[in-house]
Design goal:
Elements lengths: L2 H39 L5 E4 L5 E4 L9 E5 L4 E7 L5 E5 L7 E5 L3 E4 L22 H6 L25 H33 L1
Antiparallel strand pairs: 1-4, 1-7, 2-3, 4-5, 5-6
């Protein structure tokens, strides 16, 4: 065997020994690393675990009305707890994504473990970006003043005139009406008599 072949065999053996040693060290160190990683990722002290099946909102304070949403926590997330609201409805947590480094979550969606939490007062509510101002020009457009009108005056009705009827006119009209009725009776009777005669 020449020197070149001997060097190749020696190199392959060295590489194999190094690979087996590295794998063995990695297997031996993996439980220690996993435990170290788990210890580093799991916060110590009082912790909050999200028990709600959907992501929950993290707010800037203990209210859904007065404080905005600053982030979310996934189901099963574990974060350090810092305090609780006076009504015990909200829990303050460590939340590095905010400028203050804290956030608030609703207590119904989480479980607290590891001890008791101190009562923490709510932070001041944020100032609204737009303050309500009154536009005087727009308000003046809707400020309608009633026009001055005279009150209606009472005008008395004209005097009532009652027609006067005389007896002469009523007797004259009734006699004309009577003559008309008698004439109709004579014409009807004559017609009846003629039809009776012609029938025979």
């Amino acid at each position: 065997m020449n020197v070149y072949v001997m060097k190749q065999i020696w190199f392959k053996m060295s590489l194999g020994i190094f690979t087996v040693t590295s794998l063995g060290m990695a297997i031996l160190n993996s439980p220690e690393r996993a435990a170290t990683h788990q210890a580093a990722s799991t916060p110590s002290g009082v912790i909050v675990t999200v028990t709600y099946p959907d992501p929950i909102n993290v707010r800037g304070g203990p209210s859904t009305v007065h404080y905005p949403i600053v982030g979310q926590l996934a189901p099963g997330a574990v974060v350090p707890a810092l305090g609780i609201s006076p009504g015990h409805e909200w829990v303050q947590i460590a939340f590095p994504q905010t400028p203050t480094g804290t956030g608030w979550v609703y207590a119904v969606f989480i479980t607290v473990s590891g001890g008791e939490l101190p009562v923490v007062e709510a932070p001041p509510t944020p100032t609204p970006l737009v303050t309500a101002t009154l536009d005087l020009t727009l308000a003046a457009a809707f400020n309608i003043q009633p026009t001055q009108t005279r009150l209606p005056t009472f005008t008395p009705p004209p005097p009532l005139t009652v027609p006067q009827f005389t007896e002469e006119s009523s007797s004259h009209s009734s006699s004309v009406f009577g003559i008309f009725i008698i004439g109709l009776g004579l014409i009807g009777g004559t017609g009846l008599l003629v039809s009776f005669i012609l029938r025979k």
